[in-house]
Amino acid sequence: MNGQPSVLEVKGLTTQFSNRKNRSVTVVDGVDFHVKKGETLGIVGESGCGKSVTSLSIMRLLGKNGKVTSGSVRFEGQETLTLTEQEMRKLRGNRLAMIFQEPMTSLNPVLTIGRQIGEVLQLHTSLGQEERKRRVIELLTLVGIPRAADVYREHPHRLSGGMRQRVMIAMAMACQPQLLIADEPTTALDVTIQAQMLGLIRDMRDNTGMAVMLITHDLGVVAEMCDRVLVMYAGQVIESADVRTLLRNPKHPYTMGLIRSVPHQAKGVKWLYAIPGNVPSPGEWPQGCRFAARCSEAMPICQEQCPSLMKMEDGSECRCWLHVPGTEGGERP
């Protein structure tokens, strides 16, 4: 995996939204990461940490109130932030695809399933009408939808949540993308359907060599699917590591709290652990470490200065004063 080229390189990504008072509020703050060909990068964190906005920034789907104010997003070596909207449309759904959180709001309720997937093929390929229809039915079959020829003519409201999510996967995979961004692809699905959806994404990754950027709050999904993991908190990356290192030896107190919060069947445990407090809202981020108010390890410097993302000896990165030489708790040189 290390020898593979990067499909996506994100550097210094900063995204802002205008609020009702027309003030600009930073939601994603200086995020750096890359995704290599054939690997799955997990992005985890609580709601409000900036995970979904990061993905929408990459796709240039922020809407009229949001914009990327600085940074670089290079897809297959090409800077996408400077592309025109017409050039971005040629990229989206073709080499760069996304599965959104809620398929019912992502699918057009008045168009048939066949029409919606067919439009992707019509936009990005030279297939004729009959060829497109055959390809759509083939895609629906590939993602495990029974009676694919019948579903081709159905409208989204006639399908279950799991079936609609399969349609979204089929749509995303229609043009065999180089990078698939999956934003909480198993939200609100039961455990059996969830496993099937993740299996579909994994099989397609293995068969086509595409890269996957998986946004989730579920560390069980991360353990099963991902090669590397970014942990985000209040718009920043606070830890990154390969999946085994992160789950076995987390460095940041927030990551430790996330792992500790995972339900398990240990005898004698009556209450689930929860990290105290809430993620601070954009525009209300503290001056120092953004996790300090919720951290049991916080020191005076944590309230005053925000630490940088530092490289650890095992190759992971962590944004925490506990690991800075010369500070209380940090390793001394």
Features:
single chain, eight-stranded mixed β-sheet, 333 residues, four-stranded antiparallel β-sheet
Q: What can you tell me about this protein's structure?
A:
- The protein is of the alpha/beta class and about 325 residues long.
- It has a domain at about 250-325.
- About 30% of the residues lie in helices and about 20% in strands.
- It is built from 12 helices and 12 strands.
- Strands 6-7-8-3-9-10-12-11 form an 8-stranded mixed β-sheet, sandwiched between helices. A 4-stranded antiparallel β-sheet has the order 2-1-4-5.
- A hairpin with a 2-residue loop joins strand 4 (about 65-75) and strand 5 (about 80).
- The chain is globular, with a radius of gyration of 21 Å.
- This is ABC transporter ATP-binding protein.
- It is a peripheral membrane protein.
- InterPro entries: AAA+_ATPase, ABC_Ni/Peptide_Import, ABC_transporter-like_ATP-bd, ABC_transporter-like_CS, Oligopep_ABC_C, P-loop_NTPase.
- It comes from Brevibacillus invocatus.
- Keywords: ATP-binding, Cell membrane, Membrane, Nucleotide-binding, Transport.
